[in-house]
Write a structure and sequence with these properties.
The chain has one domain (3-76). Helix content is 66%, strand content 0%. It is built from four helices and no strands. Helix 1 runs antiparallel to helix 2, helix 2 (22-34) packs across helix 3 (46-58) and helix 3 (46-58) runs antiparallel to helix 4 (66-76). It is globular and about 35 Å long. It starts with a helix and ends with a helix.
């Protein structure tokens, strides 16, 4: 996985446990990337985050807390 993917996954792992809204997560991730010199200028959208959470929640190789990810999706998948 890329460094970019590692950062996104790390932020998501914490954010979904606290039911952080997608807009706040996107803002946090974009702020992190804006402060990194190696980062590309690719903004993460709310839809990007929802797709990432769906992927991790259903990926059989993912070690994330699938319950937390699925509960987060129940609250925020309507975006």
């Amino acid at each position: 996985m890329s460094m970019r993917g590692d950062v996104i996954r790390s932020v998501l792992d914490k954010a979904v446990r606290y039911y952080m809204p997608p807009s706040d997560i996107a803002e946090l991730i974009n702020d992190i990337f804006a402060n990194l010199e190696w980062s590309e200028d690719l903004d993460i959208t709310i839809q990007d985050l929802i797709e990432c959470v769906k992927f991790y929640a259903t990926d059989k190789h993912s070690s994330c807390d699938k319950d937390a990810y699925n509960k987060w999706l129940e609250l925020h998948d309507s975006w």
